[in-house]
Amino acid sequence: MARWKLMLLPLVVSLYAILTTVERHLKCNLPSIANLLCQAYEAGEISGPLCPDLCEQKNIQFGNCLTEAMEDKVYEGQWHGRDVIFKANLRWYTDFNTFQKQTDEDVVLSFQDNVSFLVETLFGDCPQCNRLVSLFLSLGDSDNDGIVTAPEVRSLVPLLRQQEPFMLIALNNSKQTADFHGYCGGLYATEKLPLIVSDVFGTQWNFDDFNIVPDTFEPFQEMVKNLIAKIFDAAISIPYFSKIVVNIPTITLNGILDAFFDLRMPNRKKQFEYFHSLLDSVMDLSSNPYGMLQSCDMHLGNFGIANNSVVKVIDFDAVFPVHYLRHVLEQKECVSDADCWFGTKDDCQSSCDTATKKCTSRMQKQDLIHICETHIPFVLKRPCNQEFSKNNSICSKKVVRKFELFCKRLRVVDSLDQLRNDVLAVKKELTHLEKDLSNMC
Ligand SMILES: Nc1ncnc2c1ncn2[C@@H]1O[C@H](COP(=O)(O)OP(=O)(O)OP(=O)(O)O)[C@@H](O)[C@H]1O
Ligand SMILES: *[C@@H]1O[C@H](CO)[C@@H](O)[C@H](O)[C@H]1NC(C)=O
Ligand SMILES: *[C@@H]1O[C@H](CO)[C@@H](O)[C@H](O)[C@H]1NC(C)=O
Ligand SMILES: *[C@@H]1O[C@H](CO)[C@@H](O)[C@H](O)[C@H]1NC(C)=O
Ligand SMILES: *[C@@H]1O[C@H](CO)[C@@H](O)[C@H](O)[C@H]1NC(C)=O
Fold first, then answer.
1. How far apart are CA 45 and CA 153, in angstroms?
2. Are 70 and 178 within 8 A, CB to CB?
3. Which of 16, 265, 330, 371 is the 20 to 30 Å CA partner of 33?
4. How many Å lie between the centroid of ligand 3 and the Cα of residue 34?
5. How far is the CA of 179 from the centre of ligand 3 (A)?
6. Residue 62: beta bridge partners?
7. Site to substitute for ligand 3 among 82, 172, 183, 307, most atoms within 8 A of C-beta
8. Which residues is 261 bridged to in the sheet?
9. pLDDT digits (tens, 9 = 90+) for 295-329
């Protein structure tokens, strides 16, 4: 093993030790949050379809903590023996406390208003919006006894005020979004899926390299492996990661990462299968009854792969209805285009109308364009995805470049029909690309 790799080990280990300690004390306390929720449930203050499982039957087990964020608690775990993801956001408590100050009667009476207001804020006055309101209202009766009580409303409305649970429930019938399994107070459970980044275009740590490490290090190996995998996932899921974080050229970063990992790339046919399913998921997201959607934090880390090779969206923190985005952007004052964005800069960017000093509502790019011109070429151009001879590598770069140019000519669409056409066009181009790669390179 190269010496420089070994020299990095103590650094990584101590970094990880610090991270885990901090994490333990500050962040990874979902089980204790669950305890508090159950106390409130037993006191009759909160409610939700998962509460009996969480607090009485105890058929929920928490596994590992998955997040570094303070606000968000994300755990993997089991529910009725099924692998799921548990999430809770601290904002729920703030909202819940506000509701606690209102009388039971007021809370129940304003339930419908509160739900209609949320739906209208996000989707506007859409033709099927009433259906969505009804869906949420029916969820309100979480114990199915025919009566919506104040604890039921106080549990559900704060949850719906968060982007992710709102979207997960609204889109639960979609084929290409993670399933929503239910909630208890501020804690909710979703389908757990292998991530597209780690399981498909991801990594396998080559541990033979570390055989010379003393046995005492063994407990750390799993930790180091997880940490490196996390860094790698971040790097591969965000093409411009290296520019933002480490300020070294992507090529160099990829070189370093490739030196550390045995890459578990699926064969080319499989990769293209996933690309096609990824494009279908863009179509599926916007094909809901309420209105078109756009992700304002587009990266491959937000996608999982279901058992049948179908790509599903798993992270909705920054997925917004186009109606809402337009409204938010139009309100913004600006001097230049650089002021006109929402979510992650670049992903949801409009332009500045310098005459009115207000942002326009028209997006510069959409999900399909991002995936086409950035994410697919990024995966195909990774060094580990190139054949070994220089000739092949030059050839495939050329072919991928042609595909990128096609993507750069894609327009911003306004309707579902236009989107459907463009998704079909990209899939056709992708098929050409796959053929060219195998015939010419
Ligand atoms: N449905 C799921 N299946 C499998 N893993 C998941 C799922 N949802 C979340 N995760 C894992 O939990 C981690 C934290 O999830 P979270 O939604 O908080 O993402 P995040 O750290 O906020 O990332 P982002 O930058 O995309 O918002 C993710 O990085 C992912 O590895
Ligand atoms: C719910 O609706 C009531 C009455 O319209 C309003 O006073 C209250 O602020 C709303 N609460 C939330 C959280 O939207
Ligand atoms: C969401 O969809 C899944 C799969 O279709 C279903 O099993 C589940 O009950 C639904 N969840 C809710 C809250 O309706
Ligand atoms: C995936 O499918 C296989 C068989 O098709 C099954 O044995 C396995 O349990 C499934 N895994 C999950 C996570 O559903
Ligand atoms: C490299 O490709 C060119 C055509 O693109 C071909 O003429 C040449 O023989 C190839 N060289 C090798 C070593 O394969």
1. 10
2. no
3. 16
4. 22
5. 6
6. 77
7. 172
8. 205
9. 998 888 889 989 888 999 999 999 999 999 999 99
Cα–Cα distance for residue pair 266/380, rounded to 1 Å: 12
- Compute the distance between CA of residue 132 and CA of residue 110 in angstroms, rounded to an integer: 17
Q: 141: CA distance to ligand 2 center in Å?
A: 19
CA distance 64 to 372: 34
Q: Which of 234-248, 329-343, 374-388, 417-431 has the lowest mean pLDDT?
A: 234-248
Q: 199 CA distance to ligand 1 centroid (A)? A: 14
Task: Tell me the percentage of the chain whose pLDDT exceeds 90.
Answer: 62
CA distance 191 to 312: 10
Q: Which ligand has the minimum distance to the alpha carbon of residue 156?
A: 2
Is the minimum distance from the CB of 317 to ligand 1 under 6 angstroms? yes
Structure tokens at 321: 């209805």
> What is the predicted pLDDT for the residue at 366?
95
Q: What is the pLDDT of residues 236-282, one digit of tens each?
A: 555 544 444 444 444 455 555 555 554 556 778 888 999 999 999 99
- Burial-class residue 84 by CB neighbours within 10 Å (0-12, 13-18, 19+): buried
112 Cβ closer than 6 Å to some ligand 2 atom: no
